[in-house]
Amino acid sequence: MKIACLHTAQSNVAVFEAAAEDLGLAAASLHHVVRADLLAAVERARVVADDVKRATVSLLLDLAEEADAVVLTCSTLGLAAEAVREVVNVPVIRADRALAEQALVEGRHVIALCASATTLAPTSALFSEIAERRGASFEMRLVPGIWELFRAGDMMGYFRRIAEAVQDTASDGAVRVALVQASMAGAASLLDNRQRPLTSPSAALAEAVRQLRPH
What we know:
The chain is α/β, with parallel strands linked by helices. It has 2 domains: 3-94 and 202-212, Rossmann fold, CATH 3.40.50; 97-199, Rossmann fold. Helix content is 47%, strand content 16%. The chain has helices at 12-22, 36-45, 50-64, 78-85, 95-103, 120-134, 146-151, 155-168, 200-212, and strands spanning 3-7, 30-34, 69-72, 92-94, 109-114, 137-142, 176-179, 198-199. The strands form 2 sheets. A 4-stranded parallel sheet has the order 2-1-3-4, with helices on both faces. The protein has a 4-stranded parallel sheet with strand order 6-5-7-8, sandwiched between helices. Strand 1 (3-7), helix 1 and strand 2 form a beta-alpha-beta unit. Helix 5 (95-103) crosses helix 9. The mean pLDDT is 93.
């Protein structure tokens, strides 16, 4: 089994490798491509421009020719995965869609936390679509100030702030907490099992395996 992952942050390679190990996937099951320039372009323009979407679609199409499944790990660029999955013969997994499908079980209230403002619009639209279909509810929250910590390489500070945000949801009626961006997954290790949030790397790889091994 070969699963190709398109990332926009180098640090997410290790995050997905850890998730693969937790799922019991064989070593070297994942093939990684990192294009940090795509997210950087979105952050500069404050919008996913057509050239960025075209570049992302092209990369996903190329990966689909070589892999059994493809995962787009960047929630900001998620719409590109929707475009590609209709025209290829292998599963193309949008990581935040896999997370939303896992989190929004019928009738549940989910609080989804994100770190970067660039993902708010596309992921909110995605969660809204799935919540309506499932009869569930959700609240999307941007954890303020933490993307700067990530950009500065202060990962422990980044994870601590995310863990604190998860703890703050305890009094807000959330049945589930979901960490929208792959880079946030490391915060889960700072929380006990009762507070453990859902993460997009685990959700995305589990969905890829499910589609490749339907029986």
